[in-house]
Design goal:
- By secondary structure, the protein is of the alpha/beta class.
- Among the domains are: 43-136, OB fold (Dihydrolipoamide Acetyltransferase, E2P), CATH 2.40.50; 439-595, P-loop containing nucleotide triphosphate hydrolases (Rossmann fold), CATH 3.40.50.
- Helices cover 39% and strands 18% of the residues.
- The chain is built from 24 helices and 21 strands.
- The protein is globular, with a radius of gyration of 30 Å.
- One of its GO terms (biological process) is DNA recombination.
- Its EC number is 5.6.2.4.
- GO terms for molecular function: 3'-5' DNA helicase activity; ATP binding; DNA binding; hydrolase activity.
């Protein structure tokens, strides 16, 4: 019945059906689960329960004579003070001059409007004299398209609830609903659309938050189980003696976090199931060393390895470091789009003949011409920069190679268990001994000259500096520093005694390579750049990172940029130049100066920006929940994950009769999956 066309609902004619279709509503079920995006309530709440900028209703006594003033053409402002409990609240009404005659000092009034927490002020949109009724209705407000009337939508949803409530299946087993004191599904659905009280609405939301988190986590856990059981991987019987000798030959001691992550990876390699693991760690925590050891393990087991990175600069850097590490132990080659002709043919032939053990490259690795003889281990670095198809294409070049994804963007636990819920996750949450934290300072724009003097002082000591800005060319829309102008300015200040380079995303790859190589070779002392230096580039002699218009960047991006310095033995500095106007921008600057911990920063970034913006707008992999919020409702997400894992592990989902409806829903309902699954 719920899958019937929306046209079956009382009150839905052809025109309305077409309009509702535009909202994505085609069936009765779509209509029933089209939840309000907010609720207007004229229920009086205590000031202590109000949140900044929300629409609120408060009640109090007018304790000052209402003052009326005029401005512009026929515009008016009426202000008065309300005594609400022990607080004095300023009330402002625009263009309601008539109210001056209706409101007097000593009157009790109920006002509704936008609440300003900081100023203890309410901008009144509605008012009425006298005390409010004890029980005011809570009105649902839906997202609408032009032509659809709010009251019309409310009526047809009410008709659907009246006629189809009996057909709504309660998909949660009774024991779960009782354990968490959740209302049944039909009751919760009624309360979502027509809440009787705030408390009942809260319980209805709790029900659907848990339900959609549980459905999503069950799908992720099932996918994980499917990947493990249905994809036969390669058992990699690596040579433990050779591996131990290699680790002991490294010029550094592994941290306990590196050892733990390496043990988890090696354990996967010994298993008959294909590895599907995410290795995440802070900037400079030593992920590459762990990945290199795992690559070598695969080589001792008789397989080839591939390392795919997002940029040619990074590919070149990894190639040189791996070549040095594996000197005399393994043959390493580099394949990027810039390598052409005879050299390219030679590399491709050597890979196919297994004369090359490890191939490092960019997207060039996934082209059809690249054929491995015996690919056993694949590493994808900065995996959120690759599309799903690119990752799958590389993986498919081996029969069932083990796959390790790496990211230097510390991902908050909330997002890790959601976006990567189908993967095993290893975390390197410890920095190598002796690494000095980068000193970070936030300075206002008027101190630019002092910053430039500081750069000169560091250069005089033989060091180098990055100067980062967000735009390449001047923008009419945004008054922020741009790379080309800044390069011209700094060139006139520092040259000829100090060489200045420029790098940005519009340069050809060969030009970028050339500039970066000059900087790495200390031929350039200052590198002016957009965020193209954000990922992975290693110049230990660079000790200063200056970021212009720092308020334009998110915390994670600022932290990534800061990670370009502090790679040598000398003390390094990150200077944030910016004049943020809003509280969020100021908070971001403050947090950056207080911590160097990328995981802590990522949690703060998530709170400030929300899940949708954390990876950037185009990031696929995060489901859009209708009711739940991954940050705000994190405990419910954790509970759902734990319950889903138990159901899969104990086979209750598949074999317990009480879970039959839930099982049917999980296997049939695809709307929550979206793009999440690779």
């Amino acid at each position: 019945m719920l899958r019937q066309s929306i046209s079956e609902v009382k009150g839905v004619g052809d025109k309305l059906q077409s309009q509702l279709n535009e909202l994505g509503l085609f069936t009765v079920e779509d209509l029933l689960f089209y939840f309000p995006h907010r609720y207007d309530s004229y229920e009086v709440k205590p000031l202590t329960e109000l949140t900044h900028n929300e629409k609120a209703t408060i009640e109090g006594e007018i304790v000052s004579e209402p003052a009326l003033s005029f401005y512009g053409r026929k515009k008016s402002r009426l202000t008065f003070t309300l005594q609400v409990d022990q607080f004095a609240v300023k009330a402002v009404m625009f263009n309601r001059a008539f109210a001056k005659k209706q409101l007097n000092q000593g009157d009790t009034v109920t006002v509704t409007g936008k609440w300003d927490q900081q100023r203890l002020q309410i901008t009144v949109s509605q008012f009425k004299k006298g005390e409010s009724k004890s029980q005011e209705p809570i009105q649902p407000v839906y997202t609408l398209k032009e032509g659809v009337n709010l009251n019309t939508l409310r009526k047809v949803i009410k008709n659907a609830l009246d006629d189809y409530s009996a057909d709504i299946p309660d998909i949660l087993p009774e024991d779960l609903a009782l354990a968490y004191k959740l209302p049944d599904r039909p009751q919760a659905l009624n309360q979502m659309h027509y809440p009787e009280t705030r408390v009942m609405l809260k319980h209805a939301k709790r029900r659907f938050i848990y339900e959609e988190f549980l459905l999503f986590q069950l799908k992720m856990q099932l996918l994980r189980k499917h990947n493990r059981e249905s994809t036969t991987g390669i058992v990699q019987p690596y040579d433990n003696d050779q591996l131990t000798a290699f680790v002991q030959s490294l010029p550094f001691e592994l941290t306990s976090a590196q050892k733990r992550s390496l043990a988890e990876i090696l354990n996967d390699m010994k298993s008959p199931h294909r590895m599907n693991r995410l290795l995440q760690g802070d900037v400079g925590s030593g992920k590459t060393a762990v990945a290199a050891i795992a690559l070598y393990a695969s080589i001792t087991a008789g397989h080839q390895g591939a390392l795919m990175v997002p940029t040619e600069i990074l590919a070149e850097q990894h190639f040189h470091s791996l070549k040095e590490m594996f000197e005399g132990r393994a043959k390493v080659a580099l394949l990027t789009g810039s390598i052409k002709g005879k050299r390219r043919r030679e590399i491709l032939e050597a890979v196919e003949q297994e004369e090359i053990d490890i191939l490092v490259g960019t997207h060039a690795l996934i082209q059809d011409e690249v054929v491995f003889k015996n690919l056993g281990f694949v590493i994808v670095d900065e995996q959120h920069r690759f599309g799903v198809e690119q990752r799958r294409s590389l993986r498919d070049k081996g029969l069932s190679p083990d796959v390790l994804f790496m990211t230097a963007t510390p991902i908050p636990r909330t997002l890790a268990i959601t976006a990567f819920g189908d993967m095993d996750v290893s975390v390197i949450d410890e920095m190598p001994a002796g690494r000095k934290p980068v000193d970070t300072y936030w300075v206002k724009g008027e101190m630019t000259n002092r910053v430039l003097s500081f750069i000169q002082k560091e250069i005089d000591q033989g060091h180098q500096a990055y100067v980062i800005c967000p735009l390449i060319e001047e923008s009419d829309q945004l008054d922020i520093q741009n790379a080309i102008d800044l390069y011209d300015q700094l060139s006139s200040v520092f040259e000829p005694s100090t060489s200045v380079g420029l790098m940005h995303g519009r340069l050809h790859n060969e030009e970028k390579e050339s500039v970066m190589q000059q900087f790495a070779a200390n031929e350039l002392k200052i590198l002016v750049s957009t965020t193209v230096v954000e990922v992975g580039v290693n110049v230990p002699n660079a000790t200063v990172m200056v970021i212009y218009d720092a308020q334009r960047f998110g915390l994670s991006q600022l932290h990534q940029l800061r990670g370009r310095v502090g790679r040598g033995a000398d003390q390094s500095y990150c200077i944030l130049l910016g004049d943020p106007k809003g509280d969020v921008g100021k908070e971001r600057m403050r947090i950056m100066t207080e911590t160097n911990d990328g995981f802590e920063l990522s949690e703060q970034d998530l709170k400030l920006r929300g899940p949708g913006d954390f990876f950037g707008k185009k990031q696929s992999g995060l489901p859009e929940f209708k009711v739940g919020d991954m940050v705000h409702d994190y405990r419910a997400l954790e509970t759902a994950r734990k319950d889903a894992a138990e159901m899969i592990m104990e086979n209750t989902l598949d074999h317990d009769e009480r879970y039959k409806t839930l099982k049917e829903h999980v296997y049939s309902d695809q709307h929550l999956l979206g793009n999440v699954l690779d």
